[in-house]
Design brief:
By secondary structure, the protein is mainly alpha-helical. The chain is built from 38 helices and no strands. It is rod-shaped and about 175 Å long.
Length: 991
């Protein structure tokens, strides 16, 4: 625009001069006062009480004075023409020279076309919701206006005042032919030329004189072009004259003494120069800020008086004349660009911020200011520039730092213009005004991105605070309603709506200056909500419906925000990594998971306590458990089912993910129940007697009193301290059967339980097919294995208890004691058969074969134990071998039961060891001794001449194991065996 101004030819008019009837002039009014209270003028405040109307009149006087001499002709000829027109009674023909230009309402304006400046009634683009311009309001024009008439109308100057000014200027030029207007102190000359008689009454004259004197005071004393010392005598005289005239008007005649004193003081001050030399220019209106305020008044005349947001049609014509005042006001194109930017911007604000073209014009003019700022070194200009830009930026940022309060879908276009203006102002301030930036110019600063980031973060934080307050109000209002949402759940929903609105409405605008506008916005919202979530998560200690609602809402919000950020940063250099780094996860799912784990632990701990309490009271009695298994097992599975139901009823989104934790806890708890159920029941080794020390039988003895010898033994049968005595019924065979049945029943319930878990899992909201692929999440692996292990342990415990404890009187105390032929196996078989019948009737059919097999194995072990570790009370000759083999056959037949018992292959499998050892009992003594000697020497690498080492007891009986052969020899009723044992090991005949 500045270039266009420079290109305009001030000496050529585009106006037509077709005569037309006189235009009815509107009555004079005060210049409009525009409501822009929040926008203080950056051009400076005057130190005198000159009103806007007084400044406007002064500006008009300067305008007329400047234009009347701009043609280059003597001032007097222009004035003469004006006077003749005045006397002719045709005010509309008063303009001469530069001001006497005809105007056509249809003339095209170069400047307005370049900037899109709107003419009245041209249908300019308003902000949504605003009305269109009302037009010029000048009525039907019957003849073209001159520039002078146009300016008079625009500045609301009355016909009388206009005529007085023109007559005075004529007289001035007549007396000072050839002088340039810049060398004339216009207010001083007007005071001398105009008398009270030129005005309608004395009061009007007095007010005019006071106003003129205040202008002189402002231009020469308060705001001089060259700083004025307080001691300056001319300044002191002028100040005294002006203050005296406020009480009593001064005489202004040419030869009047008071006027001469005034003139002397004024000219002395006006003609000052920095170097003291004489100049042909007077400095009376070119001091800052007086000159800028006067020029602001002139620029405001470019707006239509009836449509304050519209530029007049003849803008370029009028601007040509306005620029002629630069010489008097000490201005140039640079100052003009700055002032005009301010006037356009101020007009946009003052007219309600409705006209987008005014905003666009301000932005365009600011681009010219940016160019000037890079080349202009004038310190005074820099101050005004900084003040103006600061005012514009301050006003813009007051709206942009909380743009959600100011803008919406309806006026977002206005926001774009304000952002552009604010960013441009900030950039000039930083890059061209800030000395600090100039010193640090090496550091690249993207002003636009920094400002936009500030606006986004500030606005979103403000908006967040507002919706949080709104959410709190909503929560309080619905507090007594059923299913009322907690605060942070409401807030999450509102934040999500705010983010989506930001993405759709504001981010497309802001993306012009910042490529990650939407990402920054959601990152800010993420942080704001995240601060609330941190406090919330830190304060929750248990899983409640409200807590789950909040955490789920937060999780969904986070996913939505991250999605917006990712979409916004697809084309960015780093793919949005910087923005995503600003969004640390809320860990809502983790918080839910932790709460669920606490919930699980609480449930499991309660179940474990229940197990402890109830198993202490459990009787394990067949009479008390008609079903054959313990009531506590039914109850523990019921609690497990209730726990699973409660878990799947939790309003959480990750049942499949947390199910393994639930299952592990329940599995461990059930494993604990199983461990408690079998605890104290003993095992196989618990009931096997301690292996007696090696001894040899007494030859020919009938082994009377074996029982007494055993009683004298220090501890012939050590038992585990947990094994109960016969008097304690807690761990008897009937109770063991109930325990076995209980574990078997639990084992059978796992399939039902696991199928039910799969059904519950399928009905959960987040279930996926892959959650069912391996099924491990629904398996009770630990407790299932514990049941199998427990059943095996209980079977062994029951079997060895029966054989070695309950039937010890017929096995250990009776079998083959004394004469083998008279103490055979029949009593043991009879007792064993009764126990087998009881077992068959009282154990679950699925474990019946297993426990009978264990009883058979215990019986075989007991039979072999009697043969090899029966002590000195048992002695066998070769002929007794048949008795032993027959008894073993009877024992096997008991378990075979004519084909109704155990399968023969199982019997044969467990009889293998016995079957291999029995032949040793019919082998002659010498052969046994030779076999024993050879195997011992081979095994222990001893020479034949050395003493045969005593083989230790391994318990692994075998015909090729030295200790087994030695024990057969120890029980051989034979002299050769007795001598060999005495000579080789000196074994005692009694313990």
């Amino acid at each position: 625009m500045a270039q266009l101004f420079r290109d305009l030819s001030l000496g050529h008019s585009k106006r037509e001069s077709t005569p037309s009837p006189p235009l009815k002039i509107m009555p004079p009014k005060k210049p409009p006062t525009l409501p822009a209270d929040d926008l203080p003028s950056p051009l400076g405040q005057l130190s005198t009480n000159l009103s806007d109307s007084e400044l406007a009149l002064t500006a008009y006087e300067i305008f007329v004075a400047a234009c009347r001499t701009s043609s280059g002709k003597p001032l007097s000829s222009s004035i003469a023409n004006s006077v003749s027109n005045s006397h002719s009674g045709s005010p509309s023909q008063n303009s001469v020279g530069g001001i006497q230009r005809s105007i056509t309402s249809t003339a095209a304006s170069k400047v307005k076309k370049a900037f899109g400046l709107r003419s009245p009634g041209s249908g300019s683009k308003k902000s949504p919701g605003s009305g269109s311009g009302s037009g010029s309001g000048l009525g039907k024009v019957k003849r073209p206006l001159t520039v002078g008439e146009l300016m008079r109308n625009q500045m609301r100057v009355s016909d009388g005042m206009d005529s007085r000014v023109r007559r005075a200027l004529l007289r001035i030029s007549a007396g000072q032919v050839g002088r340039r207007i810049e060398s004339v102190v216009v207010p001083l000359e007007l005071m001398q030329q105009l008398k009270a008689s030129d005005f309608t009454d004395q009061q009007e004259y007095d007010e005019w004189q006071k106003r003129t004197l205040k202008v002189l005071e402002a231009g020469l004393i308060l705001h001089p072009y060259i700083p004025l010392e307080k001691s300056n005598s001319a300044g002191q005289r002028l100040r005294q004259i002006i203050h005296g005239a406020l009480d009593r008007p001064i005489e202004t005649g040419k030869n009047n003494e008071s006027m001469q004193v005034l003139r002397s003081a004024v000219m002395t001050l006006a003609n000052r120069s920095y170097d003291g030399s004489l100049t042909d220019s007077c400095h009376w209106a070119d001091g800052v800020p007086l000159n800028l305020r006067l020029y602001e008044m002139l620029l405001q005349s470019c707006f239509d008086v009836n449509d304050e947001s519209s530029i007049i049609d003849d803008f370029d014509e009028l601007m040509e004349q306005i620029k002629k005042t630069w010489g008097i006001l000490g201005l140039n194109q640079t100052y003009h660009n700055l002032c005009f930017t301010w006037v356009l911007f101020h007009r946009f604000v003052a007219t309600g911020q409705m006209d987008l073209e005014l905003l666009s014009d301000s932005d365009g003019q600011l681009a010219e200011v940016a160019k000037d700022a890079k080349t202009t070194k004038d310190s005074e200009y820099s101050k005004i520039l900084s003040s103006t830009l600061t005012s514009i930026l301050g006003w813009a940022e007051k709206r942009l730092l909380a743009y959600h309060e100011t803008f919406d879908r309806g006026n977002v276009e206005t926001m774009e213009g304000i952002v552009s203006l604010g960013v441009a102002a900030a950039k000039i301030l930083l890059e061209d005004v800030s000395t600090e930036y100039r010193r640090r110019r090496k550091t690249e600063v993207n002003v636009a991105r920094e400002r936009i980031e500030t606006y986004i973060r500030s606005s979103l934080r403000t908006a967040f605070a507002q919706i949080m307050e709104k959410a709190d109000s909503s929560r309080r209002a619905s507090r007594n309603q059923p299913n009322a949402l907690p605060l942070l759940a409401i807030l999450a929903k509102d934040v999500g709506s705010l983010a989506m609105n930001e993405k759709l409405v504001f981010s497309p605008i802001l993306k012009r200056w910042h490529p990650l506008a939407a990402g920054l916005a959601v990152a800010t919202l993420h942080a704001c909500y995240g601060n609330e979530m941190k406090q919330f998560i830190a304060g929750i200690t248990e899983l409640t419906p409200d807590a789950v609602q909040v955490l789920r809402a937060a999780d969904q919000l986070e996913k939505d925000l991250v999605q917006i950020a990712v979409e916004d940063s697809v084309d960015s250099e780093d793919g949005g990594k910087a923005v995503i780094r600003e969004m640390p996860p809320y860990e809502a799912e983790g918080a839910i998971a932790n709460l669920v784990k606490i919930w699980i632990k609480t449930r499991i701990d309660r179940l474990k306590d229940w197990v402890d309490r109830n198993l202490q009271q459990e009787l394990w009695s067949p009479q008390a458990n008609q079903e054959g298994y313990a009531p506590s097992s039914v109850e523990v599975l019921r609690i497990i089912n209730e726990t699973l139901d409660a878990f799947f009823q939790l309003p959480i989104p990750m049942h499949p993910a947390l199910l393994p934790d639930v299952m592990h806890g329940l599995d461990r708890c059930l494993q604990y129940y199983v461990a408690k159920a079998k605890s104290g029941c003993g095992s196989r080794n618990t009931f096997i007697p301690t292996m007696p020390a090696l001894t040899r039988c007494t030859i020919g003895s009938k082994f009377q009193g074996f029982g007494k010898k055993k009683e004298k033994s220090p501890n012939p049968q050590k038992r585990n301290s947990q094994v109960a005595t016969n008097g304690d019924s807690s761990f008897g065979v009937p109770q063991l059967c109930v325990r076995m049945n209980t574990l078997q029943w639990i084992l059978g319930e796992f399939d039902v339980l696991e199928k039910r878990i799969i059904t519950l899992l399928r009905n959960s909201e987040s279930a996926r097919e892959e959650h069912f692929s391996n099924g491990l999440a629904s398996k009770f692996e630990l407790s299932s294995a514990a049941c199998l292990e427990g059943i095996q342990q209980l079977c062994e415990a029951a079997a060895y208890r029966i054989v070695f404890h309950d039937l010890s009187h017929v096995l250990w105390d009776g079998l083959y004691v004394g004469d083998p032929s008279s103490s055979r196996i029949d009593p043991f078989l009879q007792e064993l058969e009764r126990n087998l019948m009881f077992i068959s009737d009282n154990v679950n059919e699925k474990i019946r074969t297993r426990i009978i097999t264990e009883i058979m194995r215990a019986s075989f072990d007991g039979f072999l134990f009697v043969l090899l570790a029966g002590g000195p009370s048992r002695a066998f000759s070769k002929k007794d071998s048949q008795i032993i083999e027959d008894d073993f056959k009877f024992l096997k037949e008991l378990f075979w039961a004519n084909g109704d018992g155990l399968p023969s292959e199982i019997i044969d499998k467990f009889a293998t060891t016995l079957r291999s050892i029995l032949p040793l009992f019919r082998t002659d003594t010498e052969s046994l001794i030779e076999q024993f000697r050879r195997l011992t020497l081979e095994t222990y690498k001893s020479s034949a001449r050395s003493r045969i080492p005593l083989p230790p007891t391994s318990g692994q009986w075998s015909p090729t194991e030295p200790n087994t052969l030695l024990r057969v020899l120890c029980h051989r009723n034979d002299e050769s065996a007795s001598k060999f044992l005495k000579k080789t090991y000196d074994l005692p005949k009694k313990l």
